[in-house]
Amino acid sequence: MGAAMRHDGRPAGYYSLVKLLVRAVLAMMLAVPSPALASEAPGRAQEALQMARQAVRQYYEAQAAKGDAAAARWLGDHEHGAASLSWYRKAAEQGDAEAQGELAWRYDRGEDAPRDEAAALAWARRGAAAGDETAIEVLAERYRDGRGVPADLGRALDLYARLETDPDEEAIPALREAGLAGGKPVAPTFALLLQRLQADAAAGAARANWALYTFHREEFGIPDGGALAALPYLRRAAESRDPQAMTALGGWYAAGGAGLASADPHAALAWFREAALTGYSPAIGTLVGAYETGSLAARDPAKAMEWLRRGAMAGDPEAQVALAERLGTGTYPGGPPGVYAMDAEEALLLVNKASRAGNAHAMFLQGLYNLDGTPFARNPALAAEWLQKAANAGHEGAMVALAEMLEAGRGVKADQAKAFALYRDAGMLLRQGRAYRDGRGVTANAHLALDCFLAEFDRQHPTASEAMVWLGRMFEQGRGVGQDAALGLALYEESHSLAGAWLRAQYEDRLPGATLQSRLAAYRAVADELGGPPPALPADPAAALAWFRKAAQEYLDRFEDGTL
Questions:
Q1: Helix 344-356 to helix 360-372 angle, to the nearest 10 degrees?
Q2: 3-state class of 244 per DSSP?
């Protein structure tokens, strides 16, 4: 009988080393330095990064000189003081809405620019008309406070309604709740609304106290606000049994400071519990996390499960999804295995309920189930439908999964342009950079690829090491920068990544004068660092080298395609 074959037609044994490498990449901290080059790598890597930045900057300067407003804005983003302001003004005058919003903000706040009320208002109006959210916010604040325009609560509310909800900001939702009744403003100005809220709060109205708490904490129309001024309103709202306020007060006790003498885990847990008893989803989630991790009390997974079941039975989609994930995996996010008994059938039922309720993460899981064939039969077309729904709801994981399907034509018609748009919306800079490098769904542009890779490196996410590998490839291939394999090698070395290690081995494999033994040693050095049983290699050194080369290239191909 012939060797077992995979769906791609290759012998199953071929992947023994690749599988080992894929498991190892989870650590993403492998370093296999070359003794002759290790001491030079950091300095040379910094030189490469600086050269890449200079190449990108020169590209944007050339584009700005041709009248590209977006390029001028980029230069404003990467300059300071008067130079930054000058580039923003150039972009804004050419109609760039984001630059108009930035100018409005800077003139309004006096940040990196002289404070100028007239200029702030003028640029805010232009930017808001073009839909820029920064400009809209500046203009809304002016109608709220009556600065440069007549105070008008209704106009301010209309503008605030155009902003996307920021989960870290609670004042704007509180303003909408307190300032509207039947879709109409309850007062002509924000100042009169504050007077009304103060009276209601003094009479014990929980939501009035909550609104005043958010306004003071975020200094929203209240310049002398702040944490200390906000805390009394929060206490009164919590004591009136408002679940949102009880959860927020629990957070204050958990963190300590800012008006509290010190953290008080017992008080925090008590407030979270009181809020959870009302069925308030964020409180349930916080309480579950506290019992699972032991952050506020002794670890008690049984209590965590009890609260999750309480929320799920009450129809809370967030609790249903969280419970499903634990029943499906036997643990909580970041937890050890075997914390909970697994029940795939119940997990699936819970995901079905939550997805029907419109929960984005549940719809994402439905997409993965249908894509992977667990527990359903594989149905890529249905998977794409679920992933599209989740992506439309803003789920970034679904955007990436759907983009990968569109890129590969897996279950859907291949569409590189749509895939690129999804990667962009999900903030996947490495995928965007790869697309610009190769012209996948977008016009090939090596400088924009470099910009994406540098931006990912500067974010210092866990993928920053991958960004160094991509930049190394650009130097090795001479894309957007002068071809320089040595600088590419320096970036591979400094990335401390598995891909970088294999690329270094390939570099040493290609060195003039390399011998069969030195080439094998370069690849073995990488494999030895992975630990575990050594791979079963052919006895013949030349065949062993061919095996290493094939396995390494397979890994690097998957690295570039994002299919690891």
A1: 130
A2: helix
Q: Are 470 and 433 in contact, with CB atoms under 8 Å apart?
A: yes
Number of Cβ within 10 Å of residue 4's Cβ equals 8
C-alpha to C-alpha distances, 453 to 164, 435, 447, 470, nearest whole angstrom: 28, 11, 10, 7
Q: Please tell me the distance from the alpha carbon of residue 210 to that of residue 248, in angstroms, as a whole number.
A: 10
Calpha distance 203→510 (Å, rounded): 80
Low-confidence ranges of the chain (pLDDT < 50): 1-41
Distance of CA 232 to the CA centre of its chain: 34
Region at 9 (left for phi over 0; alpha for psi -120 to 50; beta for the rest): left
Total-model pTM: 0.85
Between 317-329 and 360-372, two packed helices, what is the crossing angle to 10 degrees? 30
Of residues 176, 254, 255, 171, the one with CA closest to residue 213:
171
The pair of three-digit structure tokens given for residue 541, joined into one six-digit string: 């050194």
Q: What are 11's strand-pairing partners?
A: 5
- pLDDT, tens only, 487-518: 999 999 999 888 999 999 999 999 999 999 99
Strand partners, 181: 184
Measuring CA to CA, which residue among 502, 488, 478, 477 is closest to residue 47?
Answer: 488
- Here the tokens at position 262 are 């010190």
**pLDDT of res. 169:** 87
Residue 60 carries which side chain, given as an amino acid letter? Y
Sequence-distant (≥ 6) Cβ neighbours of residue 79 within 8 angstroms: 87
HSE-CB at 405 with a 13 A cutoff on CA atoms is 25
Residue where the block lists tokens 């470099």: 450
User: Which string of DSSP letters, residue by residue, matches 219-241?
Assistant: TSS-TT--HHHHHHHHHHHHHTT
Please give the single-letter amino acid code of residue 429. L
